[in-house]
Amino acid sequence: MVLNKKRPFARKSALILILAFLSASLFAAKVPELQGHVNDYANLMNKGDRSSLENYLTQVEKQSGIQIAVLTVPTIGGEDLASYSMKVCETWKLGQKDKDNGCLLLVAYNEHQVRIETGYGLEGDLTDTKCGLIIRNVIIPRFKSGNYSKGIVEGAMNIGGVVCGDLDSVDETVKHEIDE
């Protein structure tokens, strides 16, 4: 009888890989339930701002068909922000299916990360550059001053202004990019 000394190592390696995949899936952040346009699971917004933003985003959807959702979460559990935002968009099915015109403003509080995820139908209006400007020039300065609620509201309103062509609700630094 010939003993294969590599076999126990292969079993241990396979077991380690299986456990690693299982533990990663256990700690991956779950997508919370969609409750409306504003889903503040990290409790970063005050009640008045949450309500007025919900009303604003409802009007944007009624007038344009464009669905903008806000999600704040305490943590994404070490998951990549881009992957998590895509998972949220796919789970929530944001936007009209035939137009792919949904948008997500995602705030991961513990990771200090913000992302704007857009459907393909909005990429002509809401470019990566404009999203970056909204995050860097509108949202982050409010967050740094401790006013998360204001940063989220103004960020979402800038998104709405850009996609609806309502430049009155768009910050000057973002407008400048639109004019060029």
Layout: helices, strands, pairs:
Layout: H1 6-27, E1 38-40, H2 47-64, E2 67-73, H3 81-92, E3 102-108, E4 113-118, H4 128-144, H5 148-164, H6 172-179
Parallel strand pairs: 1-2, 2-3
Antiparallel strand pairs: 3-4
What would the keywords be for this entry?
alpha/beta; single chain; 4 strands; 180 residues; 6 helices; four-stranded mixed beta sheet
What's the count of strands? 4
Low-pLDDT runs = 19-26
Terminal residue distance: 78 Å
- Estimate the strand proportion: 5-15%
Tally of alpha and pi helices: 6
Shape from CA axes? Answer: globular
Mean pLDDT across every amino acid position: 87
Description:
The protein is of the alpha/beta class and 180 residues long. It is built from six helices and four strands; from the N terminus they run αβαβαββααα. Strands 1-2-3-4 form a four-stranded mixed beta sheet, with helices on both faces. Helix 2 (47-64) runs parallel beside helix 5, helix 4 runs antiparallel to helix 5 (148-164) and helix 4 (128-144) packs antiparallel against helix 6. It is globular and about 35 Å long. The model is unreliable at 19-26 (pLDDT under 50).
